[in-house]
Amino acid sequence: VQKQNLAELQCLLDKLHPADIAYVLEALPLEDRLLIWNMVKAEHDGEVLLEASDAIRETLITDMGNTELVAAAEQLDADEIADLAPDLPQDVLEDVLWALPITEREQLRAAMSFPEDAVGALMDFDVITIREDVRLEVVLRYLRRLDELPDHTDQLFVVDRDEHLKGVLLVSRLLVSDPETQVAAVMTKEMVKLHPNDNAQQATYAFERYDLVSASVVDVDDKLLGRVTVNAVIDFIREKAENEALNLAGLSEEEDLFAPVLKSVKNRWFWLAVNLVTAFIASRVIGVFEDSIEKLVALAALMPIIAGIGGNSGNQTITMIVRALALGQINTDSAWKLIAKELGVSAVNGLMWGGIVGLFTFIIYQNASLGLVMTAAMILNLLLAALLGVLIPLTLSKCGRDPAIGSSVMITAVTDSGGFFIFLGLATIFLL
Amino acid sequence: VQKQNLAELQCLLDKLHPADIAYVLEALPLEDRLLIWNMVKAEHDGEVLLEASDAIRETLITDMGNTELVAAAEQLDADEIADLAPDLPQDVLEDVLWALPITEREQLRAAMSFPEDAVGALMDFDVITIREDVRLEVVLRYLRRLDELPDHTDQLFVVDRDEHLKGVLLVSRLLVSDPETQVAAVMTKEMVKLHPNDNAQQATYAFERYDLVSASVVDVDDKLLGRVTVNAVIDFIREKAENEALNLAGLSEEEDLFAPVLKSVKNRWFWLAVNLVTAFIASRVIGVFEDSIEKLVALAALMPIIAGIGGNSGNQTITMIVRALALGQINTDSAWKLIAKELGVSAVNGLMWGGIVGLFTFIIYQNASLGLVMTAAMILNLLLAALLGVLIPLTLSKCGRDPAIGSSVMITAVTDSGGFFIFLGLATIFLL
After folding, report:
1. What digits encode the pLDDT tens for the residues A349-362?
2. Which residue does chain B place closest to A416, by CA atoms?
3. I need a surface site. Which of A244, B53, B157, B162 has the fewest CB within 10 A?
4. How many domains, in total, are found in chain B?
């Protein structure tokens, strides 16, 4: 960033949407990022922090003083502050809490109390409530007295005196109906009601399936607590998909592209360590058969093929099963059907690819029995991969754990060690 | 499904939302699925087909006669028929085309002409347009004459006589403003305008960043063509994330959980074949060093560790880079910074894990030089993984290809063959 352009830059920044500022900051190396961050208008600070990804937000917050942070947080709604809360220093958070009016303070406390994957964490409190015994005309006049409607207001919530949800009045119905009609006559009584402790993932399916823009959140007595809007749902879907991709690749969490080396090492060490342990086990399995390899050194060159294809095939099965579990498509009855099907797929693949591999082995090493052992080992390892590709995610899910996390590492560990064991074992028995 | 319960089931089905029916169908084995499908009311057929996933939709369409299919398609809007079109038999599609009124036929042709990842493919034509020189009162009266508003109508599009987009009137502004105001006075002129050939992925970022419910689609002359709504965007995001996960695991496309074995084999053979080729190459690399392995058989047991950790670390780097590329956070300038950083991370990891692995090797085999070779090979393979982990996706992206597809397979191929070569080569030079 050239100094003489700073004024121009300032002018440009002032015109940008907070989300765009966050985007620019994410693409900049640390030094430039902080330079730009200090040029952002203070009244945008809160919004930018909210829009930035976790890793970037951390670098920005570290750069700010406590007073600045409190000022930034105070520009936000209670549910938004709750999103920032985990990254804020404790004393800043307390200052913010005490500066809030009492209702908002209660809302913030409530929002902070939900785990990240509960509906409560996606909820906001910007609801417009109306009564069912008034005419639409009155509703329209009531709305006109407001300066603006909350974002994503596609429905008004119809509640009774005690805030119990009776129905919703869709804005689109409000607009096409005769103003003399009563709310009760045009409101919808069948609507999606979420509970704050519901699983957020399930709620996102409801949004996808019913094409919702917003949905009510009620407590056990049907009392209206707030709403979830589609933008929170999109953010959740995106974050979930990204975390899955990161975990699969062995990254613990989202990483700042320009994070210092040591910080990145910290983010990546866990899965590398897990991988190291499983690789050591596989190595010891091979170690058991060192005598066989010494006698027939071709085994050393061939064994990675068996392990590799097994891992690939097992991961295919696991991906199918994890997805079906997430969508709730698997029950005990279908589990057996699935195992049978996956074993069938593996048998076909094993005969086909095992046959080809066996043939090539025979051609290269001029050894027919070695070719047959390759074919047999391939088939067995693929069957092992299919069986455990179904059982690992099902078991994780039965134990109440997320079947997506770590199951790919586990299946690879099994198909590596298992593949080496099957192949070297068969070779020892039949060839030596 | 028990026969005596069929009547009850029918009753239940009639009450279900089409999306829920599609969901139920997806979780059923083929036979039960077709039984239920035949019980679904004909007037829901189109909607259910639209909501079902590609693999399931295919099985349902195969089960239907041409007349049924035409009838089902005719219940849908032009943009919805376009979504089904790739799965419909050619003659059904033509019958549907000719049965449509001329404007819808043109819309369907237009919608079908866009590639799947263009904004045009997400677009629908349900826009309400108004003029800027009328009072809000008139707009409200105009809306009241409609039976219902299109789903996701959060804004009305303000156009001139030639359909050029002048601005948008947010429904929330319409509701809070004085009915005597002119549209021109309250409409928003700064709005998101998409073009039908824009990349759909970029459009989804706009929806996320600006929390949109709908956005206009205009041609080069700013003429309004249609709109994109948030539900289409969510479906696109979900599908994109799923395809990525499937490709990474070596599945070509979404698969029906209960697909026949041979159909599943077809879906999975491609990546298994690719994997087989790379495994063969790695095997030949080992083959070159058979003499060395014969002399020191411990090499065979240790080599998978070097290859495995390299693959894991390379995949970590690739995942970071692919994500940053998708978000447009990388330019030529930052590419060098990234390579330097990733090399740094690899050097630290290599020293740390390589040191541990070297130590264990020394303890197990009582051979200090073997331990040192392990450490050196680990460091070198991790550096190779870092370098290519940045270069592979950057090169794919420069060549205009999707960096997500296949890059994980490529890095694993490099770190396998490269790892074997580095380790066995070092061992041959220094130990034998």
Report:
1. 999 999 999 999 99
2. B304
3. B162
4. 3
